[in-house]
Amino acid sequence: MAGGAEAPPVSSLSPLRLVAAAAVLAATFAAPAFFAEPTGEGRAIGFSVLLGAVFGIVLQRSRFCFLCHWRDFQDRRDPRGVLAILTALAVGLLVYQVVISAWVPVVRPGALPPNAHIGPVSPALALAAAVFGIGMALSGSCLSAHLYRIGEGSLASPFALLGALAGFGLGFATWNPLYLALISEGRVLWLPHLVGYGGALVGALVVLAILAAVVIKLGRSPAGRAAAPLSLGSVARQALLERWPAALGGAAVGVLSGLYFLRVAPLGVTAELGSLARTAGAGAGLLPETLHGLDALRGCATVVKTALLSPNGAFVAALVAGSFAAALAAGQFRPRRPSGAEIVRALGGGVLMGWGAMIGLGCTVGVLLSGIHAGAVSGWVFLVFVTAGAAATLALRRRFGF
């Protein structure tokens, strides 16, 4: 099975590769000066480029991938990846708590923190999350991991993104009946409304601690290697060539999520994909004239694009560039022609992920990560059902060999 958690073989430090990687990063960081206006939106784009590139580096170096980490645990009982996800959730919860409690010092009925991804809880959310999980398991990665694998030269991941665009189109086509039947009746549940800031934070951390204890109990950690003597060369090798510790990657993801929320918006990678699909569908006359309630809900918002650049689009492009730079430096940019079966799985899985992300108002980053960080019950619901969908599909793939 294709996946993003297995690191490519470790190479050796190469000055030429390091110079090439530095040039990619320099061009990425300089791009907003040429393409973004000196306005509030332009500053948001500039910060999105910075955080997106760092996010791409973190994902590539730590192999952070929701599907791949879960698969490592399900297939090999390796707990490190799942613990990295739990670490990302815990660290992000702490950062979000500081930000949200400063913005909304007093919890009032009906009031929600600005822009936070706190969506309605309904059977449609559970269905969307499960379908997204099935799509992840078929395609081999979640959408964020497909993006960083493009930076590594993956030629299958673009097919997953094409499938996701088509899936968003199907999501728009089926939105109205699902909204009227299920989503409109869903409740927007924010945990601080129920138990206050302290209760929501402590409760979430306790749940994460229990999950971590279960994972450690059931897991079988692989034997560690002897640590190399500390030197400038060993530090450079660890940072630039070898896979970063999973927990470090998880902690970095949590911090970046909080910083991006503070400066721009909740972290997410599907808003730009969805907006491209919505714009294309609207231009071709394929979308319903009215998408009931969609633009009033919180999540990875999709809009008909009127400008070339958006903060989310800049973030996603910089993510790929950051991953490309990290892969170049490590000698892990290695394009490989995918088989026909890999292309079919990537396309099919991408369609399912796109539909699930559209109906669920986001993906494993936008709903699961950013939602749980914000105290949204919708994030926890997504976590349960995306895991169930992925686990069942991985088991079927292992059983029947597809």
UniProtKB/TrEMBL annotation:
The keyword ATP-binding does not apply. The chain crosses the membrane at residues 18-36, 42-60, 81-104, 124-147, 159-182, 194-216, 244-262, 313-331, 343-369, 375-396. The keyword Transit peptide does not apply. It is a multi-pass membrane protein. It is found in: Cell inner membrane. One of its GO terms (cellular component) is plasma membrane. Its main location: membrane. Keywords: Cell inner membrane, Cell membrane, Membrane, Transmembrane, Transmembrane helix, Transport. InterPro entries: Sulf_transp_TsuA/YedE. It comes from the Bacteria. Belongs to the TsuA/YedE (TC 9.B.102) family. This is YeeE/YedE family protein.
